[in-house]
Design a protein that fits this description.
By secondary structure, this protein is an alpha/beta fold. Helices cover 43% and strands 15% of the residues.
Length: 155
């Protein structure tokens, strides 16, 4: 399975390009999933679907055509759904370093838990072999940079 990531600044067309790429790949016969992991979803808009479509059924892909499905991941629900599995794994890794159980549980709340939860779906779909191509419409990269101006290259 191929995994394509569409990332970059907000407003540059990541969702539009992810949707168009998914549509073209489906027309070429590839079983394709376009998955939005951006909390400000607009994937349904790209396919002119009702935005409330995903409010109740965020854990299942929505079929667009025979070879194309889209999935807008509700990150907050997924963190709650996968929290036990994720935290158990992180705690077990931390324990191997000699950290106490209490400290390991406190340290298991890490930055990036939202992304890790979304990656649980990537692993699930990869294991199932349901798709030939998975396209991830990522959150703006600006969300991961905390500076006040443009990033400067380091010498």
């Amino acid at each position: 399975m191929r995994i394509l990531l569409f990332s970059g600044k907000g407003g540059v067309g990541k969702t539009s390009l992810a949707a168009a790429t998914g549509l073209q790949l489906s027309k070429l016969g590839y079983r394709t999933l376009v998955m939005s992991v951006d909390p400000a979803h607009s994937l349904a808009d790209a396919f002119d679907l009702e935005t409330g479509l995903f409010d109740a059924k965020t854990s299942d892909p929505y079929t667009i055509n025979d070879n194309l499905a889209i999935h807008e991941v509700n990150i907050q629900l997924e963190i709650k759904r996968h929290w036990r599995e994720i935290s158990t794994y992180v705690v077990s890794v931390l324990r191997t370093t000699g950290i106490s159980d209490v400290e390991a549980e406190e340290l298991a709340i890490l930055p990036g838990m939202e992304e890790l939860s979304a990656m649980m779906y990537v692993n699930q779909y990869r294991s199932a072999g349901r798709y030939d191509v998975m396209i991830l419409d990522c959150a703006p990269t600006a969300d991961s940079w905390t500076g006040t101006g443009p990033a400067e290259p380091r010498a």
